Amino acid sequence: MSAVGARPEIVMHGQIPERRTGWTSWLTTTDHKRIGIMYLFATFLFFILGGVEALLMRLQLAQADSTLIEPSNYNALVSMHGTTMIFLFVVPVMAGFANYFVPLMIGARDMAFPRLNALSFWLLLFGGIAFYASLLYTPPTAGWTSYAPLSDDAFLPDGGIDAWIFLIHLTGLSSLVGAINFVATIHNMRAKGMGWGRMPLFVWTILIYSYLLILALPAIAAAVTMLLTDRHFGTAFFDVTGGGDPLLWQHLFWFFGHPEVYIMILPAFGMISEILPVFSRKPIFGYKAIAAATAAIAFLGMLVWGHHMFTTPTATVVLAIFMISSFAIAVPTGIKIFNWIATLWRGSLVFKTPLYFASGFIGLFVIGGISGVMLAVFPVDWQLQDSYFVVAHIHYVLFGGSVFGIFAGLYYWFPKMSGRMMSEGLGKLSFWVMFVGFNLTFLVQHSAGLSGMPRRIYDYSASTGWEGYNLASTIGSFLLGIGVLITVVNVLLSIKNGRKAGNDPWHGNTLEWFTPSPPPDNNFDVVPVVRSVEPMKDIRREVVKRTGEPAGSVAEPVA
Amino acid sequence: MTALLLAAAPAAMAGVVLPERGGSPNADDISTLYSITLYVAIVIFVGVEGTLIWALVRFRRRRGGAPPAQIRGNTPLEIGWTVGAAVIVLALAVITFVYLPDIKNPPRSGPNGLQASGSVELAAINQTAPPGGEVLEIGVNGQQYLWRYDYPGKEQLFSYHEMVVPTDTTVTLKITSQDVAHSWWIPKLGGKADALPGHTNETWFKISKPGLYEGQCAELCGDNHADMRAAVRAVPPAEFEAWAREQRADIQDARDGLAAQRRFRERQAGGEDQ
């Protein structure tokens, strides 16, 4: 389909206004697309940093009785890897995609509060810098959960924990401001005709993501403030000797921490729900059920934090209640998975890289979902809690789930953001290397946990029999790293030399494909009226009616 | 295949696809409960992944293939799988409650266990009275980076790192911490119990085979978390009694030695004063 460029444009743009260029234009921008790009760029840098930290840990664990990394440095790696991936990558990268695509998908010209939007990004960046500055003195060593009393000044008096607290405050403010902005934008700025029942599913998940952030973040903001005053101003919220209680920290942390898991996975669900219908050439199966399941997961997600505390001294009846609420989440989650598979069923699957990552996402997330249900059985959790089984579980959910979803989204939307296609060959290679590497890394960790290996240990003796699992895991992790690197190379090569994408390379369903790639500053000269959940299908039909020939697409089978 | 293997050799599968077992009945029960959830998981896994892979292969775009079916949903089917998923998790909840009492409640000590007439006091624990049996209650105290065990009795008896217990005797643990959060875990003897300052957590085990059972702290507790190992050595009751006597004597000797040293120091200090 070499004739993409020659086809009549279906967009009614006049002259594209001249763009401001130069680095100051980036520093001062309030354009949601530029802010989105900065989000994606910054969060992927943090992803690389967190990945390097993970690989260093895997190197240390590859052999028993290894002396490569000192215990305190290992604990610093544990803490920085988890904190980076959660607070500086998965949560904000979703905000990055949402920044770029929510206004485009709902037919808006920008976010509701553009300057607040810029503030969100800069708070995030400076949160990350404040945190990483601790490398210059003492990095935090209490894990991403910073459990009190270990995180109290009596045990870790150095500044690392304080750097962690500032990161939570700054990135928390960033997310909160951003979430309010998304809520205001989605509620008020949808194109004419886009009722709640015609809103793209990615926008649905970002709306719910935003509400979850608004509900969950105050708990952790309060908790880290209490920790800060415990550490420096003589309070004793978490200190038993002063009448406080370390369990309070765990409740406050997980009251935020569990919704956080859904904050990290729901937008990926949204991306998958956008990508599958496009590449199956079929409508999404059960649109309303998927939107409703998203809301149900979010609601139930607020009620399950206790399943992180099954081994604490807590009454059995409380544990039973948290087991049942955790089981309940499996139902709406299952609904989504069944709906996605039903979307593929009897489709006409166009195997481009986004579909590879989206299918990989379903396959891997199912494993994380199943092990999640097993962990919810609280007597079973007494054996699995804090073991490598849990490490495997969270990575099947957060890497196999969220990160594969993010990569699907990256390959799907890169043409819109850059105006160029990514290499399909490198994309598919990256997928297979990541898929094999990921499973090699994390599948064996289930067994390591079952045989008694606790998480967050810098060392183990050869007599434990864990060496085989760990060596396999380390080899897998480097394969996984190479897979990610291939995508990085793909991005760098394609951004200059990729094939021109045109407006609508995949035959998308949603309004972002109505604009040129990349979209102009004002997004739309004319915002189309939305008549269905797939407005681009209507527009293409209209174009055929008026011009007599279909718009081209590089996602058509090779002629 | 895996299911067959599981049914055939739970012991061989422990630590590979099942939690550890073979030390104490609660560990065995957890392992069994886990294996039931694993059977359910395998069925769901094969069903879902099989359908996914089949769909990906079967409905790949082909020249002259069937056009994509423009279906937007199927209410009976959707209600069906919602109810199906709910029934499965409900069944899992019921099965859990069936196994829970045996995992949670300590049984009575066996006939060959430690006898109450011995030198170590036995006490019926108050929270879940075992029918007629007596149990040995040991206090477990986590501290950076070792475990201390306090035995009941008028004369002080304690040890560090290695807990010596009599076989065929139900041992209940009262677990706490004196500094940060730790977690008690000997995989073959059952699940974890967090050790938190200001709280007392409980668990139990009952060992029939003499031997050494090893584990380690499961909650990140500082730089040397990985070195905070724990061990339980199970010995016949008579041997346990002998160990207790010797340990008490050692503790008394150490105390006497310390007192003598202190008196010596005081005398010396007094001499210097004059």
Structure description:
The complex is a heterodimer of chains A (559) and B (274). Chain A is mainly alpha-helical and 559 residues long. Chain A contains 15 helices and no strands. In chain A, helix 7 runs antiparallel to helix 8, helix 8 runs antiparallel to helix 9 and helix 13 packs antiparallel against helix 14. In chain A, 62% of the residues are buried. Chain B is built from five helices and ten strands. Chain B has a five-stranded mixed sheet. Chain B has a three-stranded mixed sheet with strand order 4-10-9, covered by helices on one side. Chain B has a two-stranded antiparallel sheet with strand order 6-7. Chain B is elongated. The interface between A and B is large, with 85 and 87 residues.
List the helices and strands and how they pair.
The complex is a heterodimer of chains A (559) and B (274).
Chain A: H1 23-27, H2 32-61, H3 71-106, H4 114-132, H5 160-188, H6 201-232, H7 246-280, H8 287-301, H9 316-344, H10 353-376, H11 378-384, H12 388-418, H13 424-450, H14 467-497, H15 535-547
Helix pairs in contact in A: 2-3, 2-4, 2-14, 3-4, 3-5, 3-7, 3-12, 4-5, 5-6, 6-7, 6-8, 7-8, 7-9, 7-10, 7-12, 8-9, 9-10, 10-12, 10-13, 12-13, 13-14
Chain B: H1 2-8, H2 10-13, H3 25-58, H4 75-104, E1 136-143, E2 146-151, E3 157-160, E4 162-166, E5 170-177, E6 182-184, E7 193-195, E8 201-206, E9 211-216, E10 229-235, H5 237-273
Parallel strand pairs in B: 1-5, 4-10
Antiparallel strand pairs in B: 1-2, 2-3, 5-8, 6-7, 9-10
